[in-house]
């Protein structure tokens, strides 16, 4: 099926100007790879030789060979006179005789001349996979509306994926109007790859290097948000400390990576385990948090309040918004293509599970009342990973926090407009993906999601090594098994030892890198215990892991990792079950920072970008690609808004230092807000990021959207459910966090289920607690379910308790 469905999402098609459309380099030896590029030779089915009719959907259309040509006697006109959905396009015939041969890893400059009476047209590519056959590849460029004058458009392809032997391309028309095209060109890029160089040690060049910074993080932060001024908001609230909660001591800090300094920020509420996301204007929406800790006897669990705040990076202050409709301790937070934010899950004010969806209106700058928000009355759990798809639906990846997954397959597609949930199959061990990480793989246009690791706090098995990958471009998408996470060492309390068997990790972090790969790091083998020391880089092209240098600090529960604008990765936090906190901060320099000089973006004409724009930059030397990376807003292994959006290049004739970047017309691929712009050379070395602000005119509403939205995941066969019966909440046990509150304080987590290798005796359990530095544990009340206070003196694991076994 070829291509798109119009989505209800904010769009602005920016005005391309003829002055920004560049002509690709024309070396004397270049050969045009297109057969019949000017439609001069007739073929079958009223089409020119080596061209075919293509498209889909509900529309009225015509294909016409016209004498209104740019050169020669013929051109091709594609017109839509009515459109309810889909597109039409004249494509290079998908055959060995007509489709140009390409080399995996190569790039190609594409060009054509056109006239257009519609703003809804884009240059679209398909590729022939040697195993899977012909399939959609990507959209490269939105064409400006040019009704009278012939205009040239050029663009460079991304690197050709492995297994691809031919490509086909043409112009998709997805709005009413006509596009006439002529004189197609396709030439292989011959720019040399930079000579490999190493500016560090051989090990640094291969594996990168970690540095533990001399200044510690002053707050117990478990939330990290990279701001559009390059600083980092670190939110602690009470920092999982009942003593700080009772004292009303709630903290945040703003870290300045350039100065290495921290500024403490007055924090009005306990934002411990809140949700957060950057809004269109760069402010940070922080929702819910901790209204109360569990009771000493464990009969009452954590409570989530309805409070909500906006943090302003300019003033570094919080401002109260209106309240949410429900409490959401551990909520999801996903920004939509129109700038709204949707939130699910978490715990309510009475410790039960929230079945209420809350929606922040970008237009009204407030949480909408419940009667204006679609409800399925579904319980999605805690921190459910809800990833925005290219058509505005949400993909629940199966990553969540605390205990079992949702009923059914463990992953699903939620269509807010239709208010339906469709199960998606294939996720392995769905009830052991607690504290797994999920990420939309680079580039976002490929619509592939990777889920890594996880465990189950309730049963506390060894965390797993599983990775699963889903391609949401498929009509009926299903997870397939990916490569296992590499093993490292694990510290059970007696020093690191190699992992064995199927041991993996939970609490891990996954970070998108500007070279198009994913760094995974940190984690633990069990619930708030047994840190795992392992770091690797996942390559989405080869679907392989490459172990690299390892963070020397433990990074388990309440840790986070995130990309800085200079291309490094920062990690902070760790909160073991004994209640301690790791205030050290580590910074990782990937191997690309040891590969010689970095490209430099020497000028950026405009930092305010609009959907469908072409934006010009200059660089100090040729680059292979450029992308936008949405800055992190991460906690508990979860950042569903993290994404890497490819910017196809149009390269000038000045040696490749003037480059036009073609911005997607689809705000569901790149929701409005601030992004880091990286330019990357052919060796994978990135520039330092420039900040750009992407959005559409505020006057546009969702119904005005005109993005080229493809019919991906259009025929899922899983069970479909609509709204259930209205209800107040989901029953949730007070032990949802996997902690037995009969012992110690609220922030000390004696596990409800010890690791399998720990015998069910007081001696074995107490030995494990001692190895993990628990110290003295008071017994809360008279109950002793784990039999740790045999002599009933009110202190668990005393000498008399151990002797009694």
Automatic annotation (TrEMBL):
Record-level GO BP terms: carbohydrate metabolic process
Matches recorded under InterPro entries: Gal_Oxase/kelch_b-propeller, Gal_Oxidase_central_sf, Glyoxal_oxidase_N, GO-like_E_set, Ig-like_fold, Ig_E-set
Signal peptide: 1-30
Database matches in SUPFAM superfamilies: E set domains, Galactose oxidase, central domain
Entry keyword set: Signal
Domain Glyoxal oxidase N-terminal residue range list: 252-578
Galactose oxidase-like Early set domain span: 598-693
Keyword Signal: yes
Gene3D superfamilies tied to this protein: Galactose oxidase/kelch, beta-propeller (2.130.10.80), Galactose-binding domain-like (2.60.120.260), Immunoglobulins (2.60.40.10)
Protein name: Glyoxal oxidase N-terminus
Organism for this UniProt entry: Streptomyces prasinopilosus
Lineage: Bacteria, Bacillati, Actinomycetota, Actinomycetes, Kitasatosporales
